[in-house]
Specification:
five-stranded mixed β-sheet; 2 domains; alpha/beta; 7 strands; two-stranded parallel sheet
Length: about 160
């Protein structure tokens, strides 16, 4: 009888080890899935100095030149090109240092592009939600003068009510 008990004990003890293998496989697949589908979340630079407005946006951001407007300064792809005070003080509708920086980005990214490609060129404006409209308007006009066909604003997607 003791031989029979020994065999039963070995069978029950070994069965728990085999139940762990499918669990490890499922966890591995889950980790790979999550890594693959969260890789394209952040295209825009993350900054703590800008409070981006909320909106209901259906389109995800695409790779584009980023004009960042903080409370004090203006950046094009991380390089400072001027200050908000200088834009306010400038009586012209186009802010020349910003236009020059955008044109430099334009020529380096799209060297040899034709005039028909202007409609495909994109710029994204990341502006603080407290920035005056007159400043944002001047930046938008400057972007269009720098031969960018698509001007868009970066927004934080507002939570939607469940339907």
């Amino acid at each position: 009888m003791s031989a029979r008990r020994e065999r039963r004990r070995k069978r029950r003890h070994g069965a728990s080890h085999f139940a762990l293998i499918p669990f490890i496989d499922i966890m591995t697949i889950l980790v790979v899935f999550l890594l693959a589908h969260t890789a394209d979340v952040d295209i825009l630079p993350n900054t703590k100095s800008i409070a981006i407005p909320q909106s209901l946006s259906d389109r995800k951001p695409s790779a584009a030149v980023v004009v960042m407007v903080t409370k004090d300064s203006i950046f094009v792809d991380g390089k400072m090109v001027g200050s908000v005070a200088a834009i306010v003080a400038d009586p012209e509708p186009v802010y020349v240092p910003l236009r020059d920086a955008l044109m430099a980005q334009n020529s380096s990214l799209l060297a040899g592009a034709q005039q028909a490609d202007i409609a495909k060129r994109e710029v994204t404006i990341m502006g603080d939600k407290n920035t005056p409209y007159s400043v944002m308007k001047k930046i938008m006009i400057t972007c269009s003068q720098a031969e960018y066909g698509k001007v868009s604003f970066a927004v934080v997607e507002r939570e939607r009510a469940a339907t």
